[in-house]
Amino acid sequence: MIKVRKMAKITMLAAVILPLLYLLVHAQACGSNVGRKPADDAERDTVLNNLLGGLTNITRQGGSVTLSDPLTLTGGRSPASIQRVATQNAPALRHAYNRRLQERPELSGRIDVKFSIDESGKVISAQAAESTMNDPELENFVIERVKGWNFEPIDKPGDVTEVTYPFVFSQ
After folding, report:
1. How far apart are CA 123 and CA 120, in angstroms?
2. What is the pLDDT of residue 68?
3. Read out DSSP for 70-120?
4. Does the structure show a pLDDT above 70 at 155?
5. pLDDT, tens digit (0-9, with 9 covering 90-100), for 25-66
6. How far is CA 17 from each of CA 22, 58, 74, rounded to the nearest angstrom?
7. Distance, CA of 159 to CA of 23 (rounded, Å)
8. Rounded to the nearest 10 degrees, how much is the dihedral formed by the CA atoms of 86, 91, 95, 100?
9. CA nearest 164: which of 88, 93, 75?
10. Every domain of the chain and the residues it spans
């Protein structure tokens, strides 16, 4: 009887907390754009991890994306600033990789993306510098996502930071 009551309390608590947590995630993801829902599971996961201060380790079955320091970096930005933005955006890349694994279960490898960031934090160009993936669909997705990344502005007029960043996709 005690176990049943505990389970009932836990279930009731979860029924209250989970919708509230979803509302918090939704509000965080939407910012001031109240009508917008998180774009996908990857965005929801990122927001939830940020909201809970990294206390959660949301993982989905399938592949992973390993991030490391940039291979090359010239300009006024620090490796830590590049790493921070890459880490924030990794869930979307992992999600895309997992979708591709459904069609190509053997898919794995590395994509080195060369991109340029202007002083305002906007990515002004991106292309694959090298890839062992042999999957143009995933390569193009990664490049297009990197083009949409936003970095902190820096106070160095005219600075363009050139980065070559490795993304390792594995199962």
Report:
1. 9
2. 86
3. -SEEESS--HHHHHHHHHHHHHHHHHHHHHHHHH-TT--EEEEEEEEEETT
4. yes
5. 445 544 444 455 555 555 655 555 555 544 444 444 589 999
6. 9, 17, 46
7. 40
8. 30
9. 75
10. 1-58, 62-171
Q: Can you tell me the distance from the alpha carbon of 1 to that of 68, in angstroms, rounded to the nearest whole number?
A: 52
For the chain, what percent of residues have pLDDT higher than 90? 62
CA distance 35 to 27: 9
Q: Average pLDDT, stretch 88-104? A: 96
Give, for 49, the enclosing helix (H) or strand (E): helix 41-51
From residue 73, alpha-carbon distances to 22, 65, 133 in Å are: 38, 20, 23
CATH number of 62-171: 3.30.2420
Q: Are 117 and 84 in contact (CB under 8 A)?
A: no
Q: Which pTM was predicted?
A: 0.65
Cα 119 to Cα 153: distance, rounded to the nearest angstrom: 6
- Residues in the chain, how many? 171
